[in-house]
Amino acid sequence: MTEEDREFALLCPHCGQQNPPEFPVCWSCHGDLPAAPARPESSAPLPPLRSEALGGERRKRILLEFSIVLSLLWLPGLAAGIWDLGDPAPARIQSLADVLWNSAEGVSLLALLFYLAWLDGDWRRRFGLERPRIVREILWGLTVWVVMTLVSALMILITNRLGPESQPDSRLDFTPAALWIAPLYLLIWAWVEEVYFRAYLWNRLTELTRRPMLSIAISAVLFSAVHVYPLHASLSLFFWGALLGWIFAWRRSLWSLVLAHWLFNLAITYVY
After folding, report:
1. 85 near 228, Cβ under 8 Å?
2. Confidence label for 84 from pLDDT (cuts 50, 70 and 90)
3. Which of 17, 59, 111, 136 would be 28's cystine partner, CB 3.0–4.6 Å?
4. Helix/strand/coil (H, E, C) string of 145-198?
5. Beta-carbon neighbour count of residue 3 at 10 Å?
6. Is 40 exposed, middle or buried (0-12, 13-18, 19+ CB in 10 A)?
7. Residue 94 three-state SS
8. How many of the other CB atoms lie within 10 Å of CB of 182?
9. β partners of residue 11
10. Do residues 223 and 238 touch, judged by C-beta distance below 8 A?
11. Distance between CA atoms of 87 and 107, rounded to whole angstroms?
12. What percent of the chain has pLDDT over 70?
């Protein structure tokens, strides 16, 4: 293997599989890999993705990841939403048991996503979770939250002009016993959705397609589709997904997006 080849693939000394240079351990056997070239400094921008880096083994790994993550995170939500379409009054009220179970599920999904990112090495930068500048991230989060609220209101006005909504409301209600833990539940799922739809999917789709804007659009479609909400909410979710995806691709920071997502969910739960 030449030095040029080694820039894009590390051979595992244990099983012989090729691995990208970011991997600390072999994706196949999890054995230690030889040292990769030094990474850029944390403040430097991430290097652009190159088509030579995506070999056959890497592509297989990404496709395997997609099949696992989609089956655990995206498909169940889509199936549940489609099932509710046939119910004139779907059960959206969450009891304390529902909240605890769904919170544990969210933490488990986060653990899976972080593990898959850890296999790539510099997962904090890839997921936009480097040490935040707190004031800046709070200001960004508040700004994005206001924009999300305005987009939601605009979509409601547009769809009301087109005709009355025949589907049930998309808000999630909690029983009195579950209200005290609802903010934590909403925070966990804000993390799950932002890590998955903004960070994980955008990175993986961009690596596969080499087209960052197309990756943002695909992620926004998947984000909207999984909720299976009424028309105004589905349109809002698509525009939110596109906006948040673009902000993540531009800033490479997830902190403000999680804050905005959480604030919006708190508002529709406790205020509206």
Report:
1. yes
2. low
3. 17
4. HHHHHHHHHHHHHHHHHHCCCCCCCCCCEECHHHCCCHHHHHHHHHHHHHHHHH
5. 7
6. exposed
7. strand
8. 21
9. 18
10. yes
11. 29
12. 78
> For residue 98, is pLDDT > 70?
yes
At residue 99, the pLDDT reads 93
Question: How does pLDDT run across 27-58, given as a tens digit for each residue?
Answer: 667 677 776 554 444 444 444 444 345 667 88
Among 30-39, 200-209, 260-269, which stretch is predicted with the lowest mean pLDDT?
30-39
* Integer Cα distance of 153 and 125 in angstroms: 34
Q: What end-to-end distance do the CA atoms of the chain give, in Å?
A: 62
> What is the C-alpha to C-alpha distance for residues 69 and 109, in angstroms, rounded to an integer?
8
Counted residue by residue, the chain has a size of 272
Question: For tokens 């652009």, what's the residue?
Answer: 48
Which is more confidently placed, 167 or 75? 75
What residues are paired with 25 via a beta bridge? 32
DSSP string, 99-157: HHHHHHHHHHHHHHHHHHHHTTS-HHHHTT-SPP-HHHHHHHHHHHHHHHHHHHHHHHH
Neighbouring C-beta atoms of residue 90, cutoff 10 Å: 16
Distance CA 56, CA 195 (A): 26
Q: Which amino acid, residue 34? A: P
For residue 15, the model assigns a pLDDT of 75
